Amino acid sequence: MNGDTLYSIGDLARRTGLTVKAIRFYSDRGIVPPTDRSPAGYRRYGIDAVARLDLVRTLRDLGLDLPTIRRVVDREVSLPEVAAAHAEALAVQIRTLRLRRAVLTAVARRGSTPEEMDLMHKLAKLSEDERRRLVGDFLDTAFGGLDTDAGFEGIMRSMTPELPDSPEAEQVEAWVELAELSQDADFRACMRRMAEHYASDRAGANGTGLRRDPAAAVLARVRPALEARVDPASPGADPVVTAVLDEYAQTLGRRDEVDLRRRLLTRLESANDPRRQRYLRLLAVINGWPAPERQSPSFDWFIQALKARIPG
Hints:
- The chain has 2 domains: 9-76, Orthogonal Bundle (Multidrug-efflux Transporter Regulator, Chain: A, Domain 2); 105-307, no CATH class.
- 66% of the residues lie in helices and 1% in strands.
- Strands 1-2 form a two-stranded antiparallel ribbon.
- The protein is mostly helical.
């Protein structure tokens, strides 16, 4: 057959594998118009109809709508432009489907009520900007307006969840719990007290700045005593308590006295709030970070040790 050969709809069906009905459908919509008609009025198509139909079938398989396909085959818009736009649309659909799957998996795992599922779905489908505003409001409540030189900007960044585009079920579940926790007024007040304590310590830190958060000093020094199973109320705990208090007193330019011990106790009890530690564990799940060290055992030990050394 040469390039001037015309084909009937039946010929095209055999060459393309499409049905006669499908080809007539595309022809009626001007996507694959006939080149001519036979004396009896039957449609006849040129060789380019084969290529157009192959392209139409491929684009339909990829999910493009008929108006867009017509614009492509008529060269009103380039195929790369359409492909790029459609690929982006599919990416959004895929993210949405993955998010729905993650929510349903989390609901099944938690045995959620319909009300809990509704809340989980609403929180999970928030846009990135909406998630940032929700968390940003929480962090601003906790740290806003305090000394900007105290490292709070870095702390806020380190406490910001970044839910991936295609989260796993446990990440969605963690995000929902973290979002709910961040709206807890009592937890917000607790985080604010912690931040104010830190800012106060830094402001009074002997003119040199707070060398490190006393909570960090506790975590570093208590671990060996915990491993050795030292009783926090026993004389064996004295060296650990003395070392932490000496560092804290030196930083603040004060002596180790009852008021200083009470001040440190207040700070550590705030830091030991289980909701704060839960927030950090949820944050690690969402951001794909290693699980943080469990801090409660060290804080519990030192708080007991400190209370045993503060007169009634």
